[in-house]
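W.,

You were right to be curious about this one. When I first looked at the sequence I had no strong expectations either way, so I just let the prediction run and decided to look at it fresh. Below is the sequence, 255 residues in total, followed by the output.
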Amino acid sequence: MRATVAAASWLRRYRPRPAATRRLVCFPYASGNATFYRQWAVRLSPEVEVVAVQYPGRLDRIHEPCVRDMATMVDGIVAALQPLLDTDFALFGHSMGAAVAYEVAHRLEHGLGVSPRRLVVSGRPAPQHHRPGVKHLGSDQELWDELRRLGGTTDEALAHTELRNALLPTLRADYRLVETYRPTLGAPLSVPVTAITGDEDPEAHVPDVADWRRCTTGEFQLRVLPGHHFYLIDRQAEVLDHVSEALGLPAGQPR
């Protein structure tokens, strides 16, 4: 019963597919939420059930405190995922979500002996290139300017005072989580890894993303697409092709 409650709290299935042969677990970026992946649930093959992680402190979890450290985040997600590990699954995360997905994969493989089919990381340098940061200690305006720099939302949204006031505490907590995080290094994954980045991403330069190959003894693929940090919005079809391949399905299926 407790596992069911945990899954209901942390995970969103916008198009449940009980007969699906594969699951894709998706992790949002800093200040993001599960709805970012709603379209993916529609556009991926009917063989795939998309399960999107909903971090505390946003949308229907707005009244819960944000998680401010990686270990607590991973504890909650791994507990929620355990009832769903009976089906072939892969993990996808963008930016901060890539770091969370990596730590979840590490916990599943080295802690529970359960490995995803593949880990797909997007818009994030390899863990060995992670550097602590202090943006979470800056002013509200500095944080908001950082969101603008990365193109994380539209100009109209950035000018919306109520949205800004609602989003800033989540943004600050997420930045604190990722800037104070110390990646799990040492024992590599055996999970195959696909790393994707935009060729003009100021946060994830191609050589640093290519070093994800050092995090696994399994197969590694690097995919570079045109665009900046949020390249995956404009290049959704290509990203979904790479995700389909990661799930062992043909790319370019009708969507």
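Here's what jumped out at me. The longest helix spans residues 161-179. And, maybe more interesting for your project: The radius of gyration is 17 Å.

Coffee later to discuss?

I.
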